[in-house]
Prior knowledge:
The chain is mostly helical. Helices cover 46% and strands 4% of the residues. It has a two-stranded antiparallel ribbon with strand order 1-2.
Amino acid sequence: MQKIKEFLIAIVVVAVILLLGLAPIEKVFVLKWENLGVKMVEAGVINEEKFPNFYNLKNLEINSENSKVVLNTLWAFGLSNKNPILEHGPMMDPKYGGAGNFASTGGWTLANGNAMTHYSMHRFIELSPGEQALVEKVSKNIFRPCCRNSAYFPDCNHGMAMLGLMELMTSQGASETEMMEKAREVNDYWFPKVEKTSCGV
């Protein structure tokens, strides 16, 4: 009888191991968020009544379930955090008639007041010259399927959110390789029906 029990236990253990090995494990990554959400609410970048999420978190977890909400949160951050890319990059090219004419700026309606009153206006995080150079290098090589522009030209919500993500990752010591890998993962969340080879990262 004891041998039968041991045999059954062994079968169960093997079955569990096989199930765990075969079950898809979702990729999730976490960034320090701390009081950034609170700061954005206080600055008026986010109107808490219009978008009541992610304000009192210590960490920002990105997964397939919350990727749309995180997209909006990072969009607000990328739009409002002061950065030379926004002030001197393609967004400011005179041929476009001003940075306020893009989907990433005109489309942000969850702020207090006009989105352009927050455009590159808040020092939520400050990057060193080396960190800024890394953000610029990486953002020029991360493309999105929706409009094929790089995160260096964040003319849509996905591009602005990706720029914000790269700033946040750089400020927390991420390497170029890590940033590129996470950009691929996030693009997979934001564009789940697009072939991975089309994500352009």
